[in-house]
Design brief:
The protein has 538 residues and is an alpha/beta fold. It has 2 domains: 273 residues, Aldehyde Dehydrogenase, Chain A, domain 1 (3-Layer(aba) Sandwich); 205 residues, Aldehyde Dehydrogenase, Chain A, domain 2 (3-Layer(aba) Sandwich), CATH 3.40.309.10. It contains 16 helices and 23 strands. The strands form 6 sheets. It has a 7-stranded mixed β-sheet with strand order 16-17-18-15-14-20-21, sandwiched between helices. A 5-stranded parallel β-sheet has the order 11-10-9-12-13, with helices on both faces. The protein has a 4-stranded mixed β-sheet with strand order 1-2-6-5, with helices on one face. Strand 10, helix 6 and strand 11 form a beta-alpha-beta unit. The chain is globular, with a radius of gyration of 26 Å. The relative contact order is 0.13. Bound molecules: 2-aminohexanedioic acid.
C-alpha cells in the first residue's frame, strides 16, 4: 500500500493530491501534460494534479488488463467477492473522509456526497453477496442421458469511462460488477474527479484486488485517453465499453464498438419530466419538483427538465415553486446547511448561461432569471465565495411548450421549465415529447392515473409521488431513446452487461445422439372431426 503523494498549497488551503496512472499494479507519474483539477467552490484550491494519459498509456493498461484476465476469471466467484466485502468495509470506514473529498473536488453538498458514497457501499454489499449466486441454469435435454447447463462467463477486458457528477457512485456501478464477474478493467475517470478516482482505487488496492485487475489511466475524453480507450475497443484490445456521459459521445462509442461487434453499456442524457396532476398533494409535489430540479444544482442525469402541470393547479404550483426556489441556500458544499453548491466545471457554466438566451428566443418567459453569482451581487442567503466559485442562482422558465429547444435539450445546471397541460392525456404526451427517456415522475392520488402513466411513459425509470432522481442501488438503472442503448446498470440486471451466457451440453449416453434427428417425435394425430363428435353426442 502506497502513501499517497500530496503537495502543500498556500496558507489556508488544504493539500493537493497527486494522482497517478495505475497499470499492472504499478503507479505511473511520468512528467508530461497534467490535469489540474480545481475546487469549483474555490478555484484557488488545486484539489488534484493528475498525469494526462496518452494513447500509449491506454494501450499499456489494456495489455496489463488482458494479461491478468485469464487468472482473475478462474478465481471462484465467491472468492472474488471477498475483495468486495473488504471494499464495502473500507468504504464504510472512509465514508466521511470520502464524502468531504467529493464535496471539495466536484462541489456536491456534504449530505448528498455522503449519499453518493453510500450508493457505492450499497453496490459493493449487493455484489459481494452476488458472488455466492451468479447463477446459471440446469436445462432438461430432449435426449436421454444428456444434461444441459448455462454458465455466466466473463467478457474479458472492460473499458470504463465515467462522468464527474457522481464520481464514486456511478464508477462503482460499473467497476464492482465487472470485476465480480471475472473481467479486468481499464478505467478512465472524469477529468473533473481524478482525486476521487485515486481514493477509490486506493480502497480497491487495500481490499486486496490483485495487480492488473483494475488499471486506471487519467485523461481527457475527446481527443484524449477516453477516446483512445474507445478506439482500443474498436481494435480488439478491449472487449466492452461501459460509459456514462453525453448522447453525442454515446453515439460515437456505439459506432466504433458496433463495428467490432460489441455491445457497449451506454448511460446517456435525459430531459426528465415530472408531472403534477390536479388531484396531487401539492405540497409534496412542489417539494419533489424543487429537489428534482435544483438538487445537486441540477447536475444529475436524472434531474427534472420539464415540470408538467395541470392548468387547474398551475397558479399554486408556480407560486410555491418560485417562492421556495428563491429561498434555496446556495454556497460552500462543506457547509451542512446549503441546498446546492457550485457548477462542476466552466463548460457546464457556459452551456447553462447560453440556455437563457435560447429560452427567451423560443418565446419562453423567465419566472426566475438564474444568473452567475458574482462578488457584490450575492443573493441574501448565499454562503460561499462568490469571487472564486462557479455559483449560479436557480432559473425557472414559464409558458414552455414542447416544440421549444429548451424543452427537449438537456442542460446540466439549476434550470427547469414549466409546461401547462390539461389532464392526464396531454401530460403523458408532453412527458413523452422529448427524444430522451431516462427518468420520469408523476404526482397524483389517482391509482388509475398512476397505472396509465406507468404503462405509457417511455422512460426506463419512473417514480410515483417521488422525485425523478434518487434511484436505489439495486433496481435497474437506464433509459430508452437518446438516453441509452437499452443496457441497464445495477442489481441483477447488470450481470447481463458483464457476462456472456455459455450453453453446455453433456452427453453421457456413450453414443452419438443427434439433436432434433434422433428424437422420437410422435406422428401428427388424425384430424378430429369436431362436428361429427358433437353430432354423435347429441
Ligand atoms: C447520474 O446522474 O448519472 O438516481 C446518476 C439518481 C442517482 C444516480 C444518478 N442515484 O439520481
Amino acid at each position: 500500500m502506497c502513501r499517497m503523494q500530496t503537495r502543500v498549497q498556500g496558507p489556508g488551503l488544504p493539500k493537493t493530491l497527486l494522482a497517478y496512472h495505475f497499470v499492472a499494479g504499478r503507479e505511473i507519474t511520468e512528467a508530461g501534460a497534467e490535469i489540474v483539477r480545481k475546487n469549483p467552490a474555490n478555484q484557488r484550491d488545486v484539489v488534484t494534479v493528475a498525469p494526462e494519459g496518452t494513447a500509449e498509456d491506454v494501450k499499456r493498461a489494456c495489455e496489463a488488463a488482458r494479461a491478468a484476465q485469464a487468472r482473475w476469471g478462474r478465481v471462484p466467484a465467491p472468492e472474488r467477492a471477498h475483495v468486495l466485502a473488504q471494499l464495502a468495509r473500507l468504504l464504510l470506514e472512509s465514508k466521511e473522509a470520502l464524502a468531504r473529498f467529493v464535496a471539495r473536488e466536484v462541489g456536491k453538498p456534504l449530505r448528498e456526497a455522503r449519499g453518493s458514497v453510500q450508493e457505492a457501499i450499497d453496490t459493493a454489499e449487493f455484489f459481494q453477496s452476488e458472488g455466492r449466486r451468479l447463477y446459471g441454469q440446469t436445462v432438461p435435454s430432449e435426449l436421454p442421458n444428456k444434461e444441459l447447463f448455462t454458465y455466466r462467463r466473463p467478457i474479458g477486458v472492460v473499458g470504463v469511462i465515467t462522468a464527474g457528477n457522481f464520481p464514486i457512485a456511478v464508477p462503482s456501478w460499473k467497476l464492482i460488477p465487472a470485476i465480480l464477474c471475472g473481467n479486468t478493467v481499464v478505467w478512465k475517470p472524469s477529468e473533473d474527479a481524478p482525486g476521487v478516482a485515486t481514493l477509490f482505487l486506493e480502497l480497491f488496492r487495500r481490499a486486496g484486488l490483485p495487480d492488473g485487475v483494475l488499471n486506471v489511466v487519467h485523461g481527457r475524453g475527446s481527443g484524449g485517453a477516453g477516446e483512445a480507450l474507445v478506439m482500443a475497443a474498436g481494435a480488439g484490445l478491449v472487449d466492452k465499453i461501459s460509459f456514462t456521459g453525453s448522447t453525442q459521445v454515446g453515439r460515437f462509442i456505439g459506432e466504433v464498438t458496433g463495428r467490432a461487434l460489441q455491445v457497449p453499456s451506454l448511460e446517456l442524457g435525459g430531459k426528465n419530466p415530472l408531472v403534477i396532476l390536479a388531484d396531487a398533494d401539492l405540497e409534496l409535489a412542489v417539494e419533489g419538483a424543487l429537489w428534482a430540479s435544483f438538487g445537486t444544482a441540477g447536475q444529475r442525469c436524472t434531474s427534472a427538465g420539464n415540470i408538467i402541470v395541470d392548468k387547474r393547479v398551475m397558479p399554486t404550483v408556480k407560486g410555491e415553486l418560485v417562492r421556495r426556489a428563491r429561498e434555496l441556500v446556495i454556497g460552500d458544499p462543506l457547509d451542512e446547511t446549503v441546498d446546492y453548491g457550485p457548477l462542476i466545471n466552466e463548460r457546464f457554466l457556459e452551456t447553462w448561461s447560453r440556455q437563457r438566451a435560447t429560452g427567451l428566443e423560443d418565446g419562453a418567459e423567465l419566472l426566475l432569471d438564474g444568473e452567475r453569482i458574482t462578488s457584490g451581487r450575492e443573493p441574501p442567503s448565499f454562503r460561499g465565495d462568490s469571487e472564486h466559485g462557479l455559483y449560479v442562482t436557480p432559473r425557472i422558465f414559464d409558458r414552455v411548450t414542447m416544440n421549444m429547444r429548451i424543452a427537449v435539450e438537456e442542460c446540466f445546471g439549476p434550470t427547469v421549465n414549466l409546461v401547462e397541460v390539461s389532464g392526464l392525456d396531454e401530460a403523458i404526451e408532453a412527458a413523452n415529447g422529448t427524444p430522451y427517456g431516462l427518468s420520469s415522475a408523476i404526482y397524483t392520488r389517482d391509482a388509475a392515473a398512476m397505472l396509465r402513466f406507468k404503462e405509457s411513459i417511455r422512460a426506463g425509470m419512473t417514480s410515483i409521488n417521488n422525485s425523478t432522481t434518487g434511484a436505489e442501488a439495486h433496481l435497474p438503472f437506464g433509459g430508452n431513446g437518446w438516453s441509452g442503448n437499452g443496457t441497464r446498470e445495477s442489481g441483477i440486471w447488470v450481470l447481463d452487461a458483464y457476462t456472456r451466457w455459455q450453453a453446455v451440453n453433456v452427453d453421457l449416453s456413450g453414443k452419438l445422439q443427434k439433436a432434433q434427428i434422433d428424437v422420437e417425435v410422435p406422428e401428427p394425430p388424425a384430424p378430429l372431426a369436431l362436428d361429427e363428435l358433437i353430432g354423435r353426442a347429441s
